[in-house]
Amino acid sequence: RICVGVLALQGGFHEHLSLLHQAAQHLKSLPADFSFTQVRTSEQLAACDALIIPGGESTTISLIAAQTDLLQNLRDFVKVQKKPTWGTCAGFILLSQRANATKKGGQELIGGLDVCVHRNHFGRQIESFEADLDLPFIPSSSEKEGERRPFRGVFIRAPVVEEVLGGDSVEVLATLENRVDRMRAGQSQAQTRGGSGDIIAARQGNVLGMSFHPELTQDARIHQWWLSEVVARR
Ligand code: GLN
Prior knowledge:
By secondary structure, the chain is an alpha/beta fold. It has 7 helices and 12 strands. It has one domain: Rossmann fold. The strands form 3 sheets. Strands 2-1-3-4-12-11-10 form a 7-stranded mixed sheet. A 3-stranded mixed sheet has the order 5-6-9. Helix 1 (13-26) links the parallel strand 1 (2-7) and strand 2. The protein is globular. Glutamine (GLN) is lined by residues 55-58, 89-90, 93, 119-120, 156-157.
């Protein structure tokens, strides 16, 4: 049995858990049985084989985790035990080695992904946007052979990778070049947010980060893919 935890200090943990359950339904053929659980303490973390850190507010999450030994144990989970860990938005920031300081100052990070992220890259809350993404790593739609259904990327005060520090060991999984709605809507680059080179998904070994919020969609394909990666890494 594989125990997958979702860090439940703040942010979209309920949403991640519901998509994990949905994804597991699709993975019935995998030779694995999953249990999903909320993680608020170091004891709960110790029971997990893999972890999701949700979107929300990274400073808040790290301040809460630092009140106990949880922050240190998260670092150990990711960097020493090297268990599969996936962060979305604020979770991505926390898993980065560095985040550029904002006016209000920085926060303590977990690290593990050798990148420097730029927090709130696209601006403030009001500048949030959604974009259709073509993500080559998720299972293609079964509806039509060979045709991939785009994934709706929800970007809310989203970070992007400003600098890859880790060289070849960091895999770029998607940039805004994977955005497919721009041309479809006939919009120019200037009318849509972000430069096409902006890195919005990256992986280094056991650590995965994404700028957007799959947990705020009803689409479990990324969760499905990640769970099968978790099984494969066992
Ligand atoms: N920009 C936020 C932060 O710094 C993350 C936003 C989000 O997770 N939607 O934590």
